[in-house]
Structures are given as C-alpha cells and as structure tokens.
Amino acid sequence: MKRSKITILLAIVLGMTFHSCLDLEPQDQLGGKNMWTSVNDYKQFANTFYSWTRDFSSVVYDGTHSDKRSDLITYQSYNEFSRGINSIPSSDANYTDNYKHIRRTNLLLQNAEAYAKPEDIKQYIGEAYFFRAYWHFYLLTRFGSIPVMDKFWDGNATVAGLQIPPRDRSAVAQFIIDDLKTAKNLLYSRSQYKGLRICKEAAIIMAMRVALYEGTWEKYHKGTDFAAAEDKSTDLLGQVLTLGDELFTMGLSLNTKDNDKKFVSKEDAYAHLFNSKDLSDMTEVVFWKKYSIADGVTHNLSSNLGAGYVDNSGAAGLAQSLIDNYLNADGSFIDPNDGIYKDFNLTFKERDARLLATVMHSDCKFKSTSPESKSKAMFVDEYSDENKQKVRPPYLTESGPARNATGYHIRMSIDTTYVSGQGETSLPIIRYAEALLAYAEAAEELDKCDPDVLEKTLKPLRERAGVTYTAPAEIDPNFTDFGYPISAKLQEIRRERRSELALQGFRLDDLMRWRAHKLIQGKRGTGAYFGADGVLYKAFDPKTAVDLKTILTTDGWLDPQKEVLPRGYQFDSSRDYLLPIPPSELSLNHELEQNPGWQRK
Fold first, then answer.
1. In the chain, which residues have pLDDT < 50?
2. pTM of the entire structure?
3. Contact at 8 Å (CB) between 291 and 424?
4. How large is the C-alpha radius of gyration of the chain?
5. Which has the closest alpha carbon to 58: 310, 430, 360?
6. 218, 243, 316, 410: which could join 310 in a potential S-S bond, CB 3.0 to 4.6 Å?
7. Residue 417 and residue 306: Cα distance in Å, rounded?
8. What is the pLDDT of residue 306?
9. Which residues are CB-contacts of 254 (< 8 A; sequence separation ≥ 6)?
C-alpha cells in the first residue's frame, strides 16, 4: 500500500501490461481520442472508482479486515501481527494497487482540463478529487510519509522521473484535506443521488476524518520516530471544527425512533442503519452501497453470519472488552467484575441498545431458513432434548470458521428474514454519526469541548441508543487503559466511538493514532464466562461442554488464545505503528527510506 506508483510507471517504461478488473486498460481505450468526448464518458470512468471502496466480500465485513487486528475481535489462532513476528514482504500489492487507483483519478482530472463544458462534468471531477484523497489517506494510515501523486505522472516514466521523494506526513494529510475541500465545492449534495454517489457531505466528513486522524497522530506520537517533522496538530484539529460547523448547516440528522418508520424495538434506530435494504431516506448515511438480487449485485453476509462466521480465517468471536465498553441504559458505568455478568443473558439486560444490535443474545434470530423460523441465539434455560430442537447456544463447538471463540456472535447487518443465501442488506460507508464524534473529540483535544458541544454531539448519539445522557464528570475505573491519563470527557468520547463505530473499520486506526500500544501489549482478547455455574455452560450438552474447559482463564472466562499467545499480543511500539515499505519499492525509488524499526529486519 505504499508510496509510489513507481511500480506502475516503471511498467510503462518497460512496456508491460497490467491486468486487473477495471484497471489500467490500454490508454487508447481509457484516455485516447475516442474517449473523454461526452458527459457519459466521464460518468462511466468515474463509476470504476467505486469498485475499490468498502464492500461485503469473503470477509463478513470489510471493517473486520482491519478490526481483526484490533481489540474488537478475538481469534483462536494468531496472526503475525498479534504474535509480533511480522516480516517484510518483497512486494505489497495493496501498496501498488492504491497508486494504480490514484493514477486513474489523475487520468480523469487531466482530461477534464480540456473538456468544453466543465460545469457538465463537475460531479465526476469532484469524485476524482475525493477518491484521489481516499486512496492517499489509506496509504498515509499504513505507511506514513509517502510520495504524493498529484497529477498524471506518465510523462515522468523514466528511471530518473521515478525518483520522487516522500512528503512529510503532515504535508500529505493537508494535501488530502485540500483535495476533499476541492471535491466538496464540486459535488452535488446528498439529495441528488440519495447517498449512492459521493456527495458534498461525504467529502466534508471524510476531510474531518483525515484532519482528526493526523491531528491526534501528531499529538500522541510527538517526540517519537513516528512524529511529523513539525507538530501541526492544533491546526489540523481546528480544521475538524471548521468543517463540522459547515456540515451542521446542511440538514443531516441521525436515524432515530422519531423518523424511523419501521421502529419497534429500542435497538432498531441503530440496527436499521445496517440491516436495511434501502438507505435512501436515511440522511444520516451520506454514502452507501446498494445490493439487489434483481440487479445481480448481492453478498454472502446473510449466510455467513447465520453460519457463525466472523471471516474465513478460523474460529473467532467478538471480544469481551467490546461487550464491556457499552454503558447501562441509565447512563451508568458497568463493573465487569460484577458477578451478574457471569450470566450470559443478564449481560445484555438494560444496556446500551447498540450492544443488542451488534451482538447476538438470547431471543434474537440467529439464522432463518424461512420467515417463520423460530431459531434463537441462545438457550435461556439449561440444555434439554426438548429445547435443543427450538433454540441453540453460540457455536462454540463447531469446526473451522463457523466455530465461535468467545461466545459472542455478530448480529449487526444480519437479515433475519432471508430465505436464500443472496444477501441484499445495504452497506453504510460514511455516516453523519462519525462527524459528530470527530467534532466532539477535536473539541476536547483543543480544550473547547463545552456543554454545548456535547449537547449536539454525544447526547443525541446516546439518546438514539436508549441511554440516559449525563454530562461526563467522573473517570470510569474499569475503562480501557491507554497507558496515559485522559479526561472524563475524552474517556466518554472514546467510549462512544467504540460503541457507535464498532465493526465498521475504525478501531485499528483509532488505536494507532492514539498511540495505544499499552492497551495491546501483553494482553489477549477473552470471551464470555464459561464456568460450570454459568448459563452458557449449562446450555450445552455436558459431554460437549467439558471439551472447552481447557481454554478458560483461571476464573472461568473463555480465553481462546491461551495456548497460542501465552505472553499475549507482542505489538512492537518501536515498529508496528507503520507497515514496512516493500523492498521492491525501495529498489525502484531511492528517495524512499524504510519505516522506523523495520531497518533491522
């Protein structure tokens, strides 16, 4: 995913042909004289940009692909990242592919300069700026300081022309933000395409995301090998507030029980953002992807969730620390050491409704083969031959990816009425809720988070989730330990991010920008209580349950990585905040330097 499109450009020099779906077709097809002559040409070319955004794929959620490396998901096996034995790949397709994507946006922008009626294609020009920023941001989050591909570079396709120095990460971030501000001034508002194309509001929220990311990165990594050359965190965080003030005038609103026509249960206002087929009328979702059997665009999410999968990597489940993050419905902190939480059913009682919408619990549909199915997620009573025909516990005893490692299955996005395996639930990609959280966090980091800020950011999110709002005043003694003190307000803002944005691909980036290695090092993700006195244990046939007793903590909680990670996660804080630059890129562009800590590998 890194710094140069150099591999691409060198291929042009050598006359090689790159093959990938919707990528780098011969230029007489993409950019020759027979193209770029009509509005439809630009539209069709811009359509290809959408192929590389978030998606439902073989991984249950695109978000889990990064969240699996965070503290949201626990795997029975380990990966190189968690074991601390990452190696340097000779090449990295993600690095080069992102520059290929950027090259395409620049090709559109270059040709747009000569178009006779630029007003007619300004939406597609805006989309090109947006996606150029989008892919540069991905590279920034993974590799730090990178070469910026700010124009169509084919004219530089010589060995000398490929020696492009990286820009300092702060300058990269500002370039991205500027692209998004340009996009914002070109794009239609959400109402034009109902969120199915990139819009003005999406560009603003994305710019807030970038400014928050880099602003907090520079604050918390200051004085380390990962710091920017100059700390511009105050300016960047200020831009979050400026952008947010503009966004707040644009008429967006959260999906709540008051405007959700299908609202029945307290978790529905949040759940319907993820398990609906059409998000056109939910202005909270400013950009989303539609799936439709009729249109031939479907996903496997419904069948995968019903089968118990997190993804295809093996046994996994949601981490206990995620469950413990959610507040009680009355707004009070939970005490995870309270014996009440040994009861799987009581764990969900009178809690934040987002917990109910995100995690499978008793009495909610697990998997349906017909709309009339009465399948449930968990035995409410002890195992018996009678109730095993009606309901079943989490898939703790299955094999392969269907095996749940923690007792906590994903409920978010499940379609409980599906009959076939062809999923049609829509995928929200950019939401207004993210902007509220970004605004609150930036304000607190700047010591500007007064009661009015919290009233318009934190309060509506809590109330949508059925949680009584009170202004943060006390530190939760059981809250996540980041290795440094934070204020009560920042604690609750960070809690809110984890609850509101769970499984949507944010958590790893949050931990990286907050320099939160103390949260990871030497720790393992645990799961639900499985002591013999607990309802979860009693829900299984005793002959089966005994097989799980070897993967428990000393006090009876599921500890799926107990044997494979006896010392816990071995995150190297002097190295693992950035990925290594592939040696193939270093050999092509001598202006690049290896990222900190990887030189010794």
1. 1-28, 31, 58-59, 64
2. 0.92
3. yes
4. 24
5. 310
6. 316
7. 11
8. 79
9. 269, 284, 432, 433, 460, 461, 464
